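Fill in residues.
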């Protein structure tokens, strides 16, 4: 499983994808470089996959702690895990690690300086937000407030009728095509993040983000080719807001955060004052872990239904082959090494992670501040590979 996660991150880096990128300050530069250690990681992790296994910093923690915490603490003290901000691990319903550190942080392009992180400190989730947006669509769908998956989106975006009329293929784009990033449109996020040829940057600078997305040329019929596309998630956010009559943040608070007793959160807005469904969510580590636990428990929290079990099954069913050995569901990354995915995960620029492994009853949350670093994936992969795996195998 860990090798699979490494491959997903490798693929995203190869396409120079990051979660979102600039907003109110043009000085923010977002980029990703090519990874060079893919082959080494595959060899190192081959045995773990075969076994089917999940599949200077200041530490803020108690004087004691679990064995896993002690191992992590020792590595932190030796400077082996630079940029790590938080680690929270739950195994079989028990929290076996929760550690927080001090380090440099940013919120989008805003420099927050050096922060001492803790269980009440909000942290950018970056593209982990996309997966949360997927959950929100499922909640709204269960309530009958958003179009069904098979619905052509043009019927629900009347303000853009002129765009849809220019290419008949655009009228066949469905909600499912948005959730799987198979819109069929031209979309390029390979440029630097002060370069408006990067479509996600261009979208965020546009006067109308939705028109920016929809006016892109069609490259193939919808539903055929997977192409990482932050614009697709922007349209998902619009369908949620239009259908519920609430902002994304307000709807999330009412239908997801409050039922989970998550009181500390924030949602960053773009230059058009619209909540960013691609990367704007800020949560605490315990808050994100609670979402992971709810998913692991089939969409329930303390006996209350939050997300339908049917929607989770739909979300975690493979819909596209994203990279070598990695598949994509409805805005979630999935294991591609077995017929039925053994894990689901959400990734965010800088090292943000929410990983869920049902077979091992494992939830892992990692926050880090290695934003835009070409190898931002290495620290979270090492945390799980060198520390979490041995702990649950003891």
């Amino acid at each position: 499983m860990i090798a699979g996660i490494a491959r997903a991150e490798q693929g995203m880096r190869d396409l120079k994808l990051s979660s979102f990128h600039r907003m109110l300050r043009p000085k923010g530069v977002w980029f990703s470089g090519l990874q060079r250690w893919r082959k080494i990681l595959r060899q190192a992790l081959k045995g773990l996959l075969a076994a089917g296994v999940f599949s200077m910093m200041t530490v803020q923690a108690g004087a004691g702690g679990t064995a896993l915490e002690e191992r992590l603490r020792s590595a932190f003290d030796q400077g082996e895990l630079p940029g790590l901000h938080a680690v929270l691990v739950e195994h079989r319903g028990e929290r076996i690690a929760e550690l927080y550190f001090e380090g440099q942080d940013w919120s989008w392009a805003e420099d927050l300086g050096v922060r001492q992180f803790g269980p009440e400190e909000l942290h950018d989730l970056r593209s982990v937000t996309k997966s949360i947006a997927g959950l929100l669509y499922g909640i709204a769908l269960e309530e009958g407030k958003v179009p069904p998956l098979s619905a052509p989106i043009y019927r629900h975006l009347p303000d853009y009728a002129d765009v849809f009329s220019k290419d008949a293929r655009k009228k066949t784009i469905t909600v499912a095509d948005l959730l799987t990033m198979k819109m069929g449109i031209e979309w390029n996020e390979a440029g630097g993040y002060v370069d408006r040829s990067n479509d996600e940057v261009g979208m965020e600078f546009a006067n109308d983000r939705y028109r920016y997305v929809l006016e892109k040329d069609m490259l193939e019929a919808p539903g055929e080719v997977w192409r990482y596309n932050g614009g697709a998630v922007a349209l998902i956010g619009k369908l949620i807001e239009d259908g519920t009559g609430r902002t994304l943040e307000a709807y999330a608070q009412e239908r997801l955060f409050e039922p989970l007793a998550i009181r500390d959160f924030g949602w960053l807005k773009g230059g058009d004052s619209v909540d960013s469904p691609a990367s704007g969510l800020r949560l605490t580590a315990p808050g994100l872990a609670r979402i992971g636990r709810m998913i692991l428990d089939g969409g329930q929290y303390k006996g209350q239904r939050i997300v339908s079990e049917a929607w989770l099954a739909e979300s975690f069913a493979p819909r596209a082959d994203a990279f070598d050995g990695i598949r994509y569901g409805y805005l979630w990354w999935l294991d591609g090494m077995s017929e039925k995915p053994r894990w689901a995960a959400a990734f965010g620029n800088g090292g943000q992670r929410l990983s869920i492994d049902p077979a091992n009853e494992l939830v892992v949350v990692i926050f880090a501040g290695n934003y835009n670093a070409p190898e931002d994936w290495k620290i979270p992969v090492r945390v799980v590979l060198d520390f979490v795996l041995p702990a649950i195998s003891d």
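The CA atoms of residues 312 and 388 lie 25 Å apart.
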